[in-house]
Each structure stands twice: as C-alpha cells, then as structure tokens.
C-alpha cells in the first residue's frame, strides 16, 4: 500500500474541497444567514443588499407564503395571517403562553404545541419557522451558487428540549441538514473571542426580541468552555414594546381596538423605543381604524420607569449564573452585548452598574450570533484549517430528572453540566408483582413534577413478577452535543428494555413532520421521491467521502486485510448504486457501509485518545 | 464497545490516583482529550464515527466532573478501594456535626424569612471553612494515612454540606426575586 497521509481529525484532507455550510440565526424579530468565505465570516445579503430578514410570514389562500420585509409591511393591515415573533410559540402549548391574549392571532389549542389559524389553513409554529428557514436557505444557495451541505442553527441557551426539538424539526422541514444546534450566547462568544483573541472569563448578555440569555464562559487557549448559563425564554425586546403599548392604552383611553389597531400601536411602540435610544424624548402619533387620533409624547425617563421591572428581571438570572459558575462580577473580564434590545440605554447602564465596567459593544449585536454560527458550521462541515484549532464545550441549561413517588422529581443531570453527558439511575418497583413501570422524564429546577416541564412519558413492560423493591430498573438519560435528550430504560436482571427519543409529549410527532414535509413539497411542486433520492445520494456520497479519508488516515494500521477488503467492497457496492435511481438500494448499501465501519470507527477513536495521552494503554481505560 | 464510565478516571487524564490533585493539569488534560474526541470534530464523518465520538466525549466529561469535585473524587477513590461511602446504609454522622447542620439550617430559614442577605453570606463563609477543613482531612486520610474508614466519614460530612449548600442557593435565589 502507498504511504498514507495522516491528518488531524476534522481537518480537510483535500484543501481545495470546500463544503458549503452556513450559520443561521433564527431570531424572534429578525433572522440572518452567514457563511465563512476565504476564512472570513460574512453575513449573506438579499438581492436588495439587506442582511436582516424580518422573521415575519404572511399566508394567503392557495399562495406560497410571503416571508420578510414584504410580509412585515402588511402586518398591520392583515394581522391574523401575518405571523410575527413565532419563535415565542415554538414547543409551547397554548396554556404556556402567559400573554396569549395580547397577540392578534387566532390560536388553536393543539396537544403539545399551539397552532395558528390563517387564511391558508392552520399552521404550526414549526411550519412558520420552516418558511423563514427556507427563505434563508434559498438566499444562501443563490448567493453561494450550490446546494448546502448543512447548517448550524442557533437557539437561545435557555431553550428547553421541546423548543430545541421544534427548531430542529423546522430545519428538517425546510430541507436543511442540521450540523448542530448552537446556543446563541455561545455563538456570540466564538465570534467575539476569535476576533479579539480573548482569554479569561467573559459574560455574554443576550437580550433578543423574545428571549433572554446570560452565559458565563472561560476562554482559554482556543477552548470556549461554558461554565454556566441562565435566562428567560419568554423575555425580550417585545416585552418592552408591550409595556409601552399598555402605557399608550392607559394614556389615551381608546375605544375598542381592532386587531389591526393592536398591531399598528405595537409597531408605534417599537418605533418609539428605538427612537429613545438616540433621543431624550419622542412623539407618538397614529390614526386608528375608527378615525381616532393618538398624539403622545414620551420621555426616556418615563420609558425607563415603566420598564424598570423588565430590566431587573434580566439581572437575577445574571446573578444566578455567576453563582452557579462559582464566580463574582469581579472575576468577569468583559461583558459581550448581543441582541438588538441591548441597544436600549437602560439595559446598557444596568449591565454596566452590575458588572462595574462598560459592556463590550464592538460587534454588531444583530449579526454577531449568525457570524459565530457560520464559524462553527465551517468547522463542522470539515473545512477546518490548521489555524482553526478551537473547540466549544457547552452545557445543558436546565436540570433533567425522573418522576418518583409522591409527584417529586429526582434530578439525574443537574443544570450546567457539560454536554454530551449520560447519567443513569436505578429505580425499583413499589408493589408486589408489578410488571410495568411508567417512566416520566422532566426538565426544570423545581422539586414538584407539576412545576417542571414534561418531556416524555413511556412504559417499560414485561418486568418479571417479583416482590416490591426486588426489580432493578436502570434509567439512562443521554444529552447529545445539540442539547437534545434521549432516554432508555432497562430491567437489569432480565434485560427487558425500552428507549425513546424525546418528542411524544411535546414537539411534533414524526407523522406530523412527514405530513408537513409532503405539504411543503407539494407547495414547492417538488417530487417527493426525487427529493428523497437526492437526499439519499448526498448522504451516501458524504459517507463514501468520510470512509475514504478514514481509510487514508488509519486504514493500514488499524485494519487487517479481511476487514480492509470488506470495507472497500461495501464502498464499491455503494458507489455503484449511488448514481442509479433505486432509492431503497442506496439506503440499504449506505446502512451496510455504516455497519461494517463501526469497529473501525471505535478503534480510530481509541487511537486518538491514546495519542492524546501519549503512551497509555487504551485497553486499560476501556475495560 | 461502550466505554465503562467507572473505570480509571485518573488514568484517563494521566494523573496519579490521589485526592490531592493538580487542578490546572486536570483542566489541560481534559481540554486536550476533548479536542480529540468531541462530536464537533466528527460532525462531517460517518454515523459510526459520530457514535464513537459521542460515547468517548461523554466518558471524558463524566470523568472530569468526578475528578473536579472534591466530594465525588474522594468517593471515587474510596470506591476503588471497595468502600461505598455514600451507600444508603452508611448514614451515621457525629453528633457535633449534626448539631452544626441544624444550626445552619435554622440560620438559613431565618435569614430567608427576614430577607437577611448578610446572614446568608455568613452561613456560606462558615460552610466554606468547614468544607476546606474536611478536604484537608481527606487528603491526609486518603493520601497519607490510607485510613478509609475515617475518609468515608469525611465524605459523608462533605455530602451533607453539599445538600445544605443547595438549600443556601435556593435561599439566595428566593431573596433575589
């Protein structure tokens, strides 16, 4: 065999082969897409040179959805069918949305996740988000001139499992391969940290349109280690608008408002808030549908007073995150400000006071998240260059646990544990002869089941009949690098087992996603089977590519002749069918290649560990 | 080939199996290992590579968590000696220690009721002092004397302090609302 090149894991073996990957900031108010071009992260613009895509979608009967600026312009005249801030409803049931009455929508109370009635039918928040993502995908493919290999999509760090799962479903629906769900403040830290070669403890204060996150990170020699995160996934710039809107109502004693009036006034509230960023006072004038005219003057001092409780609602999570990290404000080297809402002077001064330092505003707070996501996407796609040697270690924001007797939650994975993480706990039966056990997985910090978010409920059946307390049931929770949970349970004496990926009680069922995928493709007049075939080909080619580079790197030293030829034969079989039309065959051969490379992958990983430890026997560690 | 999460955490990081630990060396070894096995390094590779990476990265995180925490590190060292310090049947604690716990609990409850931040901080300082003393005792019992019975006792006391610290955290959060 020829002398083989050995490269770092994740380093592209073929330097000129650049895979198209993007970072997407799917925001409450605006969304963006960015990519790394010639080693530099850049935001991609639309044909009119605009970076921000308003996260607004308008539905009309039998027509494709209108996304972005065009939809935003008509939101006041068509409020029921023009959906803004849909991110607030992701993974949320109607009863979760405290201020549902203040939105001008026709909510449909569906199990799991709330839906919205529009002129083009009932839409799930996942579908609306998918329409936004699709617009960004098209912008990126148009701008980069090719099909995307994948995307990193950002989510608020404080998003729970249901909200993350919903985001991933939306991406799938939009035809995007999700390379990773990345926490927004972490994305910002990457962009800031790499740009400024920062070292030390940093806080990222991220106040977006509808969510608030605080993350505390340690930046050290290219490693971005999240120490703690906290936040409020239902607090953002929108709430400041809402507060101002209520003030306007109090001031003017309006007659009954229509949905159009509501949207109009909310828009004026937003304009006024933005005006106060630069001016000490502003005037609000508007004409309602009844002909009633509003003319109010608002000072910055008045605005600060009416929103003071909102500002302080962001400071408690900051203190909690610091406490969890075992740090005080004095330890923090810099505070990176992220999200359009951090432009408000009241936020800037509150943060400055708490930390005793001027916050860092040198990156555009609207763009920094998308730029960080693009850098991460570039690395995950395998475009890593030698000087790109950085790594991200993130945490799970909320504790995970299992319901025990008496409606209490037994925490298994505490919040702020570095991911990926797996933890197991043993439980037992409480009745003689009990043969089934219901396992209820929860997320949250409170002790009572009723105060936590239910993620999944499933049954382990076929436990052999024993006296109470004799069966030993091991429940294992695994959180992957996307922050998504999977659960498995096993009775240890008999090996009876059950496993779930968490989605049944919240998020969408797989059937829903398939139906929507179909709807989506019908909409785009795309042939479902052609799409499936195309996806199978992309996946197969990806695997062939990956396997080839693994063989080049380590094949000779880690495989014997038989193993080597088996893998090569499977590769050849897949390569032969990949350009054909037989979708099922491609899938089958892909699966076969995956199977025969498993032991090889495990050995490769062991070797890396051994190399990192220089000289230790991995067998000792694995045994 | 699932890595065994219980096997040899110290060896994983190339550190001696002792209670007294070079925290900086642990941090460096942890980062070096994650740089090799983390799922972000394998996102563009095959399913098999991704699975192996997820398992190893999980294992490295688990070992790091255990070694970083004095309580878990001590319990782990004892476990290696066949001593299960935190087994449910091992709950005996000295009366003096228990009295101190009761005092702290009462102080926390009182401070919470009176919204007395300073009183909470006082309890926290006292608990930190006690925790440091227990850790010094543990270093002596485990690394010098090899007295596992007394080490197991200190581990249980440290565990107790951990529980009260959780109460303290909740009290701080409650006062912040």
Which descriptors would you attach to this protein?
heterodimer, A: 623 residues, alpha+beta, Nucleotidyltransferase, domain 5, Substrate Binding Domain Of DNAk, Chain A, domain 1, Substrate Binding Domain Of Dnak, Chain:A, Domain 2, six-stranded mixed beta sheet, five-stranded mixed beta sheet, 15 helices, 38% helix, disordered N terminus, disordered C terminus, B: 177 residues, mainly alpha, Helix Hairpins, Monooxygenase, 2 domains, globular
SSE blueprint and pairings:
The complex is a heterodimer of chains A (about 625) and B (about 180).
Chain A: E1 21-26, E2 30-37, E3 40-43, E4 53-54, E5 56-58, E6 66-67, H1 69-73, E7 82-84, E8 107-108, E9 115-118, E10 121-123, H2 125-144, E11 150-155, H3 161-173, E12 178-183, H4 184-196, E13 200-207, E14 212-220, E15 223-232, H5 237-252, H6 259-275, E16 281-287, E17 293-299, H7 300-325, E18 334-338, H8 345-355, H9 368-383, E19 391-393, E20 395-396, E21 400-404, E22 408-413, E23 417-418, E24 421-427, E25 437-443, E26 453-460, E27 473-479, E28 485-491, E29 497-501, H10 510-523, H11 528-558, H12 561-577, H13 583-596, H14 598-613, H15 618-622
Parallel strand pairs in A: 1-11, 11-12, 13-18, 15-19
Antiparallel strand pairs in A: 1-2, 2-3, 2-4, 5-6, 5-7, 8-9, 9-10, 13-14, 14-15, 16-17, 20-23, 21-22, 21-25, 24-27, 25-26, 27-28, 28-29
Helix pairs in contact in A: 2-3, 4-9, 5-6, 5-7, 7-8, 11-12, 11-13, 11-14, 12-13
Chain B: H1 9-12, H2 23-37, H3 47-68, H4 70-80, H5 95-113, H6 117-145, H7 148-176
Count of discrete alpha- or pi-helical segments spanning 4 or more residues of chain B: 7
Cα shape of chain B? globular
**Largest beta sheet of chain A, briefly?**
6 strands, mixed
Rg calculated over all Cα atoms of chain B: 20 Å
Task: Note the total helix count of chain A.
Answer: 15
In CATH, the topology of the domain at 21-195 and 364-385 in chain A is named Nucleotidyltransferase, domain 5
* CATH homology group of the domain at 21-195 and 364-385 in chain A: ATPase, nucleotide binding domain
Tell how many strands the DSSP assignment of chain B holds: 0
Which regions of chain A are unreliable across 5 or more consecutive residues at pLDDT < 50?
1-16, 504-509, 520-526, 615-623
Radius of gyration of chain A, in Å, reads 26 Å
Any low-confidence stretches of chain B, pLDDT <50, length ≥5?
Answer: 1-6
The backbone outline of chain A, from C-alpha atoms, is globular
The assembly state of the depicted protein chains is heterodimer
Tell me roughly what share of residues is in helical segments of chain A.
Answer: 25-40%
| CATH fold type of the largest domain in chain B | Monooxygenase
Identify the CATH class of the largest domain in chain B.
Answer: Mainly Alpha
User: What's the CATH H-level homologous superfamily of the largest domain in chain B?
Assistant: HscB, C-terminal domain
């Amino acid at each position: 065999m020829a002398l083989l090149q050995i490269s770092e894991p994740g380093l592209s073996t073929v330097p000129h082969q650049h895979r198209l990957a993007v970072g997407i900031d799917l925001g409450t108010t605006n969304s963006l897409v960015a990519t790394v071009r010639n080693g530099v992260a850049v935001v991609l613009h639309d044909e009119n040179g605009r970076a921000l895509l308003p996260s607004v979608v308008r539905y009309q009967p039998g027509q494709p959805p209108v996304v972005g600026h065009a939809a935003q312009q008509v939101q006041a005249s068509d409020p029921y069918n023009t959906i803004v801030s849909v991110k607030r409803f992701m993974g949320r049931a109607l009863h979760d949305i405290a201020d549902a009455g203040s939105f001008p929508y026709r909510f449909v109370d569906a199990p799991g996740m709330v839906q919205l009635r529009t002129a083009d039918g009932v839409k799930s928040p996942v579908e609306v988000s998918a329409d936004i993502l699709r617009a960004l995908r098209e912008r990126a493919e148009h701008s980069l001139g090719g099909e995307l290999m994948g995307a990193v999509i950002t989510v608020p760090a404080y998003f729970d499992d249901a909200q993350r799962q919903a985001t991933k479903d939306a991406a799938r629906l939009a035809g995007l391969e999700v390379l990773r769900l990345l926490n927004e403040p972490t994305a910002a830290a990457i962009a800031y940290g790499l740009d400024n070669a920062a070292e030390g403890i940093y806080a990222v204060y991220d106040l977006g349109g509808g969510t608030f996150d605080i993350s505390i990170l340690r930046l050290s020699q290219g490693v971005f280690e999240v120490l703690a995160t906290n936040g409020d996934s239902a607090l953002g710039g929108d709430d400041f608008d809402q507060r101002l809107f209520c003030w306007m109502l109090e001031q003017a004693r309006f007659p009954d408002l229509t949905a159009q009036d509501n949207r109009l006034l909310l828009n004026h509230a937003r304009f006024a808030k933005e005006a106060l960023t630069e001016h000490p006072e502003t005037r609000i004038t508007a004409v309602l549908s009844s002909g009633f005219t509003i003319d109010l003057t608002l000072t910055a001092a008045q605005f600060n007073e009416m929103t003071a409780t909102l500002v302080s609602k962001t400071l408690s999570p900051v203190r909690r995150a610091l406490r969890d990290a075992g740090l005080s404000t004095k330890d923090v080297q810099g505070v990176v400000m992220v999200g359009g809402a951090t432009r408000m002077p009241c936020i800037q001064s509150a943060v400055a006071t708490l930390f005793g330092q001027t916050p860092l505003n040198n990156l555009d707070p609207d763009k920094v998240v998308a730029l960080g996501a693009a850098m991460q996407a570039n690395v995950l796609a395998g475009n890593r260059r030698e000087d790109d040697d950085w790594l991200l270690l993130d945490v799970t924001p909320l504790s995970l646990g299992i319901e025990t007797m008496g409606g209490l939650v037994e925490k298994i994975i505490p919040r702020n544990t570095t991911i990926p993480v797996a933890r197991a706990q043993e439980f037992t039966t409480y009745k003689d002869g009990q043969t089934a056990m219901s396992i209820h997985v929860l997320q949250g910090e409170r002790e009572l089941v009723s105060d936590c978010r239910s993620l999944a409920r499933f049954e382990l059946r076929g436990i052999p009949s024993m006296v109470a307390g004799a069966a030993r049931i091991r429940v294992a929770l695994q959180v992957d690098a996307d922050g998504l949970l999977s659960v498995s349970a096993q009775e240890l004496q008999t090996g009876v087992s059950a496993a779930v990926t968490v989605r049944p009680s919240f998020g969408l069922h797989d059937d829903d996603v398939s139906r929507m995928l179909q709807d989506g493709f019908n909409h785009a007049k795309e042939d479902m089977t052609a799409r499936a075939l195309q996806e199978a080909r992309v996946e197969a080619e990806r695997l062939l590519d990956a396997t080839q580079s693994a063989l080049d790197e380590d094949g000779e030293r880690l495989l014997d002749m038989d193993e080597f030829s088996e893998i090569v034969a499977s590769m050849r079989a897949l390569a032969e069918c990949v350009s054909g039309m037989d979708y099922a065959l491609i899938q089958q051969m892909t699966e076969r290649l995956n199977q025969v490379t498993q032991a090889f992958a495990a050995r490769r990983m062991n070797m890396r560990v051994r190399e990192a430890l220089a000289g230790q026997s991995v067998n000792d560690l694995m045994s | 080939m699932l890595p065994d999460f219980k096997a040899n955490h110290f060896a994983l990081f190339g550190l001696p199996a002792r209670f007294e630990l070079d925290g900086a060396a642990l941090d460096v070894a942890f980062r070096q290992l994650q740089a090799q096995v983390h799922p972000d390094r394998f996102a563009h590779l095959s399913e098999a590579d991704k699975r192996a990476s997820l398992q190893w990265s999980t294992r490295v995180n688990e070992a790091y968590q255990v070694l970083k925490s004095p309580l878990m590190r001590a319990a782990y060292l004892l476990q290696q000696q066949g001593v299960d310090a935190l087994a449910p049947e091992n709950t005996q604690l000295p009366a003096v220690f228990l009295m101190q716990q009761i005092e702290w609990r009462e102080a926390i409850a009182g401070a919470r009721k009176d919204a007395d931040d300073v009183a909470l901080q006082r309890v926290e300082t006292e608990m930190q002092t006690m925790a440091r003393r227990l850790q010094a005792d543990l270093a002596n019992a485990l690394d010098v004397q090899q007295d596992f019975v007394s080490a197991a006792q200190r581990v249980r006391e440290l565990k107790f302090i951990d529980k009260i610290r959780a109460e303290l955290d909740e009290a701080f959060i409650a006062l912040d609302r």
